[in-house]
């Protein structure tokens, strides 16, 4: 893999030509190290003063790939130099010393040393230092890739704009630095993207594993628990303390987020899109999703990667992030395997399933996931059933503030899927849109047509109704979760995750959603992104406007979590026959609140 | 004739190592020697002696001051040790370690005693190495020419 893009002239011969700066006040060592490094075909610059080295580094930024520095130098502590280099140049620094005391080495590492070599230093150790540069490159490449991923999304959006100028998806743009970081992390966990990138072995926090973890935490009490205790309690031999510590941290963040959410009550937050373009493609996606579901990763965001062509990407940095919104993460790896299977056209039913997954994933974040799948009876079951199912679920699930975020019932999902197979008809074209919104603000209007679920009246269910059928506004109360199921031929499932995100955010998202919807309306092929909240209304309006059109045939329904990235694959769309089903599921709700408030599900089926 | 010299040279080196004056680091240095730096080892050793003389002097002066500044002594000796290990001066390195132990325990007498010993080793090694390099020059460029590899 040519991931290294060194600016040095010998970039092609990496690691030959690695530009090394050696800093040591001992001239003897400088001479020896220089010789050794040269023998490794590195470009060596030596310096016997730390300050001089720092000046040199500042003067020739980008002039070095790595720094090797002695710890003890008269003019400046090697650790100090290390800090400067780390802060200013972000270069890998190797410390060296004749002293191997643990405390010293630890100090070096704490200050950011990527390695700590003991004198006398041997050739073989130096020969290997390129790895630090390489590692860094990999990380950078990953960052870039993830950014590219975002760009891709942007492009897709732009594509969407063709249909609808007005709105841009804000999703990615909204992402703050932190979120961005989350996204990156997600990518790390994902495989799909680039086979080239080197993956770290990561712990996959399966449902099972996480349950053990939660059990351990509960056992000790949340406040007193530490990674070590949990590790011991879990009794998983291959797990390291670091794994647990990291998981615990995420878990804590997740909990605190939940807490906040309760306080906020507002809304909706995340959305996810799952895009299913055509039968086959959809199938692929679905499969991927399903597969993914089985794996629960710690990763926050739900990064939904679509298999081959499928452009589904869900990024929920926010909500998911800490919570381990396992669902999304899962997507990545399993995909591949599934995809292969998907190829069968008939498996379209599967595709459905996939959607469900996506939904489920979303749900997972919310924590009610497992149930969600159940809800979807993608089967032709009348909408009404959905409603029934939905409500009970929500209530039962009651987005509990409870901590157990991650537990997914994968198994449940699977069964569902199977059942879904029945959907084989789906290929014809069904759009299923489920939207769950919990917003206090929105007023709910019962819609005659939609029966099963509750809607927020404000939303232009009307539009929906026109096409689809019954939307019911079940939720009397302010906050509600709405589920729309639109069952036109296409199936749309939109899941939303909850986030404590500020309204403004939502609005933007909503816009995006609107766009999407519009687009969908226009062309059946698209992803639907539904954002609830303020945006919701807009959405409705637009929907109304468009409703006359064939109705929703969102072939692709993509939900994005908070940051919602909506992907539309036009390509896919193009390929896909008109009748594709897309499923959109929206789930809005505050986990905590949901319990309190009746959840509304709406199902719209457009035939 | 030349071959003979090289053999003697090898023997000398071997005995230096066997007697504990030098360790593998010295061999490492010899391996670094190539056409570009045919006298690399000698250059390094020369550099070492030139630079470390300053340190020896510093330590000597510090040892004369009362009370003893052990932190300073330790710091100097740390440097000296780092330097000494660069040429594989094993005995010197050991003396350094000993000296630093004494610094840690605040044993001034131990420090002085060890330092005397260290200076002796320092000089002894210098002599042996000078002899060795002199011999090596006579033997001429060895490695590449004589070692069939």
UniProtKB/TrEMBL annotation, chain A:
<feature type="domain" description="HTH myb-type">
    <location>
        <begin position="197"/>
        <end position="256"/>
    </location>
</feature>
<dbReference type="GO" id="GO:0003677">
    <property type="term" value="F:DNA binding"/>
</dbReference>
<dbReference type="InterPro" id="IPR001789">
    <property type="entry name" value="Sig_transdc_resp-reg_receiver"/>
</dbReference>
<dbReference type="GO" id="GO:0000160">
    <property type="term" value="P:phosphorelay signal transduction system"/>
</dbReference>
<dbReference type="GO" id="GO:0080036">
    <property type="term" value="P:regulation of cytokinin-activated signaling pathway"/>
</dbReference>
<dbReference type="GO" id="GO:1990110">
    <property type="term" value="P:callus formation"/>
</dbReference>
<feature type="domain" description="Response regulatory">
    <location>
        <begin position="19"/>
        <end position="134"/>
    </location>
</feature>
<dbReference type="GO" id="GO:0005634">
    <property type="term" value="C:nucleus"/>
</dbReference>
<keyword id="KW-0804">Transcription</keyword>
<dbReference type="InterPro" id="IPR011006">
    <property type="entry name" value="CheY-like_superfamily"/>
</dbReference>
<dbReference type="GO" id="GO:0080113">
    <property type="term" value="P:regulation of seed growth"/>
</dbReference>
<dbReference type="GO" id="GO:0010380">
    <property type="term" value="P:regulation of chlorophyll biosynthetic process"/>
</dbReference>
<keyword id="KW-0010">Activator</keyword>
<dbReference type="InterPro" id="IPR006447">
    <property type="entry name" value="Myb_dom_plants"/>
</dbReference>
<dbReference type="GO" id="GO:0080022">
    <property type="term" value="P:primary root development"/>
</dbReference>
<comment type="similarity">
    <text>Belongs to the ARR family. Type-B subfamily.</text>
</comment>
<dbReference type="GO" id="GO:0009414">
    <property type="term" value="P:response to water deprivation"/>
</dbReference>
<dbReference type="InterPro" id="IPR017053">
    <property type="entry name" value="Response_reg_B-typ_pln"/>
</dbReference>
<keyword id="KW-0805">Transcription regulation</keyword>
<protein>
    <recommendedName>
        <fullName>Two-component response regulator</fullName>
    </recommendedName>
</protein>
<keyword id="KW-0238">DNA-binding</keyword>
<dbReference type="InterPro" id="IPR045279">
    <property type="entry name" value="ARR-like"/>
</dbReference>
From TrEMBL, chain B:
<dbReference type="GO" id="GO:0043424">
    <property type="term" value="F:protein histidine kinase binding"/>
</dbReference>
<dbReference type="GO" id="GO:0005634">
    <property type="term" value="C:nucleus"/>
</dbReference>
<keyword id="KW-0932">Cytokinin signaling pathway</keyword>
<dbReference type="InterPro" id="IPR045871">
    <property type="entry name" value="AHP1-5/YPD1"/>
</dbReference>
<protein>
    <recommendedName>
        <fullName>Histidine-containing phosphotransfer protein</fullName>
    </recommendedName>
</protein>
<feature type="domain" description="HPt">
    <location>
        <begin position="37"/>
        <end position="132"/>
    </location>
</feature>
<dbReference type="GO" id="GO:0009736">
    <property type="term" value="P:cytokinin-activated signaling pathway"/>
</dbReference>
<dbReference type="InterPro" id="IPR036641">
    <property type="entry name" value="HPT_dom_sf"/>
</dbReference>
<dbReference type="InterPro" id="IPR008207">
    <property type="entry name" value="Sig_transdc_His_kin_Hpt_dom"/>
</dbReference>
<dbReference type="Pfam" id="PF01627">
    <property type="entry name" value="Hpt"/>
</dbReference>
<comment type="function">
    <text>Functions as a two-component phosphorelay mediators between cytokinin sensor histidine kinases and response regulators (B-type ARRs). Plays an important role in propagating cytokinin signal transduction.</text>
</comment>
<keyword id="KW-0597">Phosphoprotein</keyword>
<keyword id="KW-0902">Two-component regulatory system</keyword>
<dbReference type="GO" id="GO:0000160">
    <property type="term" value="P:phosphorelay signal transduction system"/>
</dbReference>
<dbReference type="GO" id="GO:0005829">
    <property type="term" value="C:cytosol"/>
</dbReference>
<dbReference type="GO" id="GO:0009927">
    <property type="term" value="F:histidine phosphotransfer kinase activity"/>
</dbReference>
<feature type="modified residue" description="Phosphohistidine">
    <location>
        <position position="78"/>
    </location>
</feature>
């Amino acid at each position: 893999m040519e991931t290294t893009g060194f600016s040095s002239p010998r970039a092609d011969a990496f690691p030959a030509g690695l530009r090394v700066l050696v800093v040591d006040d001992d001239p003897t060592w400088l001479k020896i190290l220089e010789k050794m490094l040269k023998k490794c075909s590195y470009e060596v610059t030596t310096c016997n003063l730390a300050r001089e080295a720092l000046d040199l580094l500042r003067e020739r930024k980008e002039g070095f790939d790595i720094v090797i520095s002695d710890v003890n130098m008269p003019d400046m502590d090697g650790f100090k130099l290390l800090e400067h280099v780390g802060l200013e140049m972000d270069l890998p620094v190797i410390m060296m010393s004749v002293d191997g005391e643990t405390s010293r080495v630890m100090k070096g590492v704490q200050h950011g040393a990527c390695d700590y070599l003991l004198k006398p230093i041997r050739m073989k150790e130096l020969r290997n230092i390129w790895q630090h540069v390489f590692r860094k490159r990999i990380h950078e490449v990953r960052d870039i890739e993830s950014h590219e991923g975002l760009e891709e999304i942007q492009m897709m959006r732009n594509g969407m704009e063709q249909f609808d100028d007005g709105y841009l998806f804000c999703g990615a743009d909204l992402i703050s630095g932190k979120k961005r970081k989350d996204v990156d992390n997600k990518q790390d966990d994902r495989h799909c993207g680039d086979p080239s990138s080197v993956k770290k072995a990561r712990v996959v926090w399966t449902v099972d594993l996480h349950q053990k973890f939660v059990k351990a935490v509960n056992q000790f009490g949340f406040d007193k628990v530490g990674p070590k205790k949990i590790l011991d309690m879990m009794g998983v031999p291959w797990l390291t303390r670091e794994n647990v510590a990291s998981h615990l941290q995420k878990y804590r963040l997740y909990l605190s987020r939940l807490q906040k959410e309760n306080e906020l009550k507002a809304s909706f937050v995340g959305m996810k899109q799952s895009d299913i373009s055509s039968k086959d493609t959809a199938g692929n996606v679905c499969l991927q999703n399903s597969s993914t579901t089985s794996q629960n990763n710690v990763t926050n965001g739900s990064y939904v990667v679509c298999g081959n062509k499928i452009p589904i990407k869900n990024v929920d940095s926010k909500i998911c992030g800490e919570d381990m919104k396992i669902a999304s993460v899962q997507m990545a790896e399993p995909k591949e395997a599934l995809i292969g299977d998907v190829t069968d056209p008939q498996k379209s039913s599967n595709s459905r399933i996939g959607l469900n997954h996506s939904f489920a994933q979303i749900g997972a974040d919310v924590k009610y996931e497992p149930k969600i799948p159940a809800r979807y009876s993608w089967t032709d079951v009348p909408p009404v059933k959905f409603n029934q199912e939905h409500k009970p679920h929500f209530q039962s699930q009651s987005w509990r503030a409870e901590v157990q975020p991650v537990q997914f019932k994968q198994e449940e999902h699977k069964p569902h899927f199977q059942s879904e197979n029945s959907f084989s008809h789906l290929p014809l074209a069904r759009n299923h849109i489920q939207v769950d919104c919990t917003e206090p603000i929105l007023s709910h209007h019962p819609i005659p047509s939609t029966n099963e679920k509750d809607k927020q009246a404000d939303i232009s269910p009307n539009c929906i109704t026109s096409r689809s059928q019954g939307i019911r506004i079940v939720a009397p109360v302010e906050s509600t979760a709405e589920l729309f199921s639109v069952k036109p031929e296409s199936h749309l499932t939109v899941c939303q995750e909850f986030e404590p995100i500020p309204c403004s955010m939502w609005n933007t998202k909503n816009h995006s959603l609107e766009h999407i919807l519009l687009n969908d309306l226009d062309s059946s092929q698209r992803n639907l992104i539904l954002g609830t909240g303020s945006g919701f209304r807009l959405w409705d309006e637009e929907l109304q406007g468009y409703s006359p059109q064939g109705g929703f045939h969102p072939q692709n329904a993509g939900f994005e979590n908070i940051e919602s990235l909506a992907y539309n694959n036009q390509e896919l769309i193009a390929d896909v026959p008109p009748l594709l089903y897309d499923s959109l599921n929206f789930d809005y709700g505050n986990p905590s609140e949901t319990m309190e408030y009746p959840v509304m599900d709406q199902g719209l089926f457009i035939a | 004739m030349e071959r003979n010299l090289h053999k003697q040279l090898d023997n000398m080196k071997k005995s230096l190592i066997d007697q504990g004056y030098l360790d593998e680091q010295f061999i490492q240095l010899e391996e670094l020697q190539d056409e570009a730096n045919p006298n690399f080892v000698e250059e390094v050793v020369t550099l070492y002696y030139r630079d470390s003389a300053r340190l020896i002097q510093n330590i000597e002066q510090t040892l004369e001051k009362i009370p003893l500044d052990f932190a300073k002594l330790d710091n100097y000796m740390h440097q000296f040790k780092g330097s000494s290990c660069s040429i594989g001066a094993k005995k010197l390195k050991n003396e350094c370690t000993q000296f630093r132990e004494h610094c840690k325990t605040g044993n001034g007498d131990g420090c002085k005693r060890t330092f005397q010993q260290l200076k002796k080793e320092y000089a002894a090694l210098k002599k042996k190495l000078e002899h060795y390099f002199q011999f090596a020059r006579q033997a001429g460029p060895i490695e590449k020419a004589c070692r069939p590899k």
